Amino acid sequence: MAGNTIWTIKKLIIWTTQYFKNHGLESPRLDTELLLAHVLHKSRIYLYTDFDEIVEPSELAQYREYIKKRVGGFSTAAIIGEKDFMGLTFRVNEHVLIPRPDTETWLEKVIQYHRSEPGLKVADLGTGSGAILLSFLYYCKEDTGVGVDISEEALAVAKENGKNLDLDDRVVWRQGDYLTTLEEGEQFDGILSNPPYIPSGDIPGLQKEVQHEPALALDGGEDGLDFYRKLAESADSHLKEGGFLAMEFGIHQAEPVLTLFKETGKYDSFEIIKDYGGIERALYCRKKENE
Ligand code: GLN
After folding, report:
1. Is the CB of 128 under 6 A from ligand 1?
2. pLDDT per residue over 234-283, tens digit each?
3. CA distance 244 to 221
4. What pTM was estimated for this model as a whole?
5. C-alpha angle 74/75/81, rounded to 5°?
6. Number of structural domains found in the chain
């Protein structure tokens, strides 16, 4: 990006898209538009209505920094501090996992299943930015929820998102270690979770962008299944009869996760949900009702 050129929005979009392409980024145009729109404090649509607007030197300087960060391995969401998920915008930072489209596929289903049952109380374990729980509550307008995370910094982000979405009065945030944070005898109509599920040994080989996300939200122990073992062991004591459990897992984990829950003998209505890429991505099941 030469210093003496007059840079319009249009020129910047063309230049940066090519630059990102050369660096092998997966969605060069989208990343370009999101970063530029953020620098200019505008929506993406505005870029198109003002294609010939000249970008100010101070804005250009900031934009250059963003481009450097992006090719240096930071995701666009991490740079601009926000990510769209389930049609809503969430604040994110280095303390939380950035919400993924793959999570939308199973969460949409769970919301469809339960949005006509008003008054449910749900828990989200390892809530991070709060994206899963807050989306559920946003679309299930009379439900309430408890969001749990071990990280105080993550909970600060979740709280901010809860406020921004005006869901404060229907959500409670609690800091603590996963299931143990729920009170003795406290029962829910549903438990949601996208726990850390990457096998510890795979973490160093992950994409650069993911390396910048908190290990705490990724590392699922030696085989990646530590959190499913915890859930299989005691989630049922926090579920009402017929209550649902919906949890995301990683590639090749459908079989072992399903087995863990089937073996307890406590659940039925098992369903494996696939993501946009056709990969098995989540397990939904329900606590058996007493006959
Ligand atoms: N989906 C994330 C990834 O593949 C992992 C999220 C998690 O561990 N829950 O990088």
Report:
1. no
2. 999 999 999 999 999 999 999 999 999 999 999 999 999 999 999 999 99
3. 25
4. 0.94
5. 100
6. 2
Listed residues 46, 72, 98: the one ending a domain: 72
Residue 51 backbone dihedrals phi, psi, to 5 degrees: -50, -35
Shared domain for 164 and 274, answered yes or no, is: yes
Is the C-beta atom of 196 inside 6 A of ligand 1? yes
In-domain check, residue 79: no
- 153 and 46, same structural domain? no
Residue 212 near ligand 1, beta carbon < 6 Å: no
Residue whose CB lies within 8 A of the most ligand 1 atoms, among 194, 197, 251, 253, for a mutation test: 197
Q: Using pLDDT thresholds of 50, 70 and 90, give the confidence band for residue 28.
A: very high
CATH number for the domain that contains residue 66? 1.10.8.10
- Which residues, including other chains, have CB under 8 Å from residue 50's CB and lie 6 or more apart? 9, 42
Q: How far is the CA of 224 from the centre of ligand 1 (A)?
A: 10
Amino acid in the structure at residue 190: G
Same domain, 148 and 43: no
198 lines ligand 1 (CB under 6 A): yes
